[in-house]
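Predict the structure of Collagen alpha-1(XIV) chain.
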Amino acid sequence: GLAQYSGDPRIEWHLNAYGTKDAVLDAVRNLPYKGGNTLTGLALTYILENSFKPEAGARPGVSKIGILITDGKSQDDVIPPAKNLRDAGIELFAIGVKNADINELKEIASEPDSTHVYNVADFNFMHTIVEGLTRTVCSRVEEQEKEIKGTIVASLGAPSDLVTSEVTARGFRVSWTHAPGKVEKYRVVYYPTRGGQPEEVVVDGSLSTAVLKNLMSLTEYQIAVFAIYSNAASEGLRGTETT
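Done. Here is the predicted structure for Collagen alpha-1(XIV) chain.
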């Protein structure tokens, strides 16, 4: 998404406006320049209220990153609105051009300054920071995705108390205690301890048992039961059994 600002910020396009890189680049090439005042604090508040909403294309579980480009010192206070953005989980990068105030850029950007604050003498030199900025943003997105997924998994309850029964030469029953919350399905993955292709059985979230069939006799099997929620899976409940 992109917003321009002076005294009156405006959205040029939202996150969900274009579906391809070429479409975005074409929109950038045709972007009219907006001159005027430099009310950066107002602009930061504006994007918090308008650019990081589901209707604007923001998605749960996806990194939120804002990149500010300014060519002058702000005429209003930037500290509270920048903090509000950071507190909302939005990582901020600040790029100063020409007469931008480096200390103000540091007050806006997330830490550390060494990777989140950039300054160039003129717009013609923007190409000198693109590679480093792109690399940093992409690596931070990857790190945040791991953090987000880890938080989701940690917050999801897993099934417990794995029990096997009805053991025969060719199969056995696996039972467990339900995981908390709204479980859509349970996924039971099993494979021979000595090596082999993993197989799985999926049962409805209302059930807490599954029968594993057509197994090899006299073979130890590794078992893992996962609770499947609407947008993630729990850690596995693990155990073994021998036919």
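The longest strand covers residues 220-228.
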